[in-house]
Amino acid sequence: MNLPETRPLTLIVDDDPLTHKMLSYMLKKDRIGVLEAFSGEEGIQIAKDKLPDLVLLDVMMPEMDGFEVIKRLKADRKTAEIPIIFLSAKSSPSDRVKGLELGASDFVSKPVDQGELLARIRTQIKLKRQEEALREYTQNLEKMVESRTRQLIHADRLASLGTLSAGIAHEINNPTTFITGNLQTLEQFWAKIVDYLSSHPQAAQDVKIQYIIKEFPGMIRSIRAGADRISNIVAGLKTFARKDSPRKAPTQVNELIEEALNLTHNRLKYYVNVEKSLAPDLPAIRANGQHLVQVFVNLMLNSADAIGDKTGLLKISSEATSDGRVRLIFSDSGEGIPPDVIDKIFDPFFTTKPLGQGTGLGLSITHGIIRDHEGTIDVESTRGQGTTFTITLPTGKRP
Ligand SMILES: Nc1ncnc2c1ncn2[C@@H]1O[C@H](COP(=O)(O)OP(=O)(O)OP(=O)(O)O)[C@@H](O)[C@H]1O
Ligand SMILES: [Mg+2]
Fold first, then answer.
1. C-alpha 168 – ligand 1 centre gap (Å)
2. pTM (whole model) above 0.70
3. What confidence tens digit (pLDDT) does each residue in 360-384 have?
4. Is the dihedral of CA 186, 188, 192, 198 positive or negative?
């Protein structure tokens, strides 16, 4: 039987100096660390302070005997798990039973047989280490289950939101089409009314009519802007609620990044310096190009917003990974994301932008598209320094 890798530590609690000498010589020779206590009280204190892997405990001691020591060690949560081997010169079977009932792991008679004691010590230490490993494993498992459950709840919530969004999008779409349709007719009618008024100077001189002529075009413009905004939100909701898997074809991601940069050029040109590092030999991936362009545009516009009106940097890189994927990194020097909101940024409708500027759908759509491509998207951000989004997408090739 091999001892565990880290050097184990034992605590000898015995009032007899000779036993100490003999035991510590034997243990040290076997590369086992030794702590020594000469009374029950001292033993309890050292056990609490140093948390040894094992206690060798004499039963018969003045003041506080071994039974009392074990009671106290087992009653304290800190020391309760430390295995204890009783050492006793003349133990009756009832003593042994009492010791075991109090939580002793084993019993060895004095004078001790070195081979036997070492074998028993090794067994106890090994058991303790295995228990610790098991406890750690269980805790990790609990954490994994917790995090997976959170993901599932999130996915479930997104799925119900998807269904709800599809319904809302459909309901809003119809009235919006007749608002925009009638607006067009209204604009044409207005042109005719203005023509008519200009041929009737008497009416055109009426102050109220003059006011109407002045204000009307602005009102129509703002109605149109509002209607366009509703249409955009509806389009966003529809994309978010999309259930079908996108049609995919072999695609060069670098080309899509260039396309997205062309689309966002006007928004980026004043304050955002773009630094590209695109791998020339990037393998093609199976993707829906238009959807991925939408992802890249979303990320670029978010970076532009985060950079604001002080000049900043957006670094975009692409590379092949050793496990057969493509990794894309979008890293900006913008304002960063506060830690208390970073968990929410992929939620639909979550936005920190002023009313009317962000729908909060950009990243939830992005997340949906990447998921449709069996990819991953992660974010890291430092407030005041910038934000990095990392996307990986499968190439379908084995590493
Ligand atoms: N690069 C970034 N730097 C700092 N904050 C970001 C960045 N990207 C996203 N965010 C934060 O995440 C929020 C959600 O982003 P998302 O793209 O989903 O919506 P939005 O940009 O607010 O609105 P929309 O995309 O619909 O215009 C943003 O409001 C912003 O607070
Ligand atoms: Mg956005």
1. 22
2. no
3. 889 988 998 998 899 999 999 999 9
4. positive
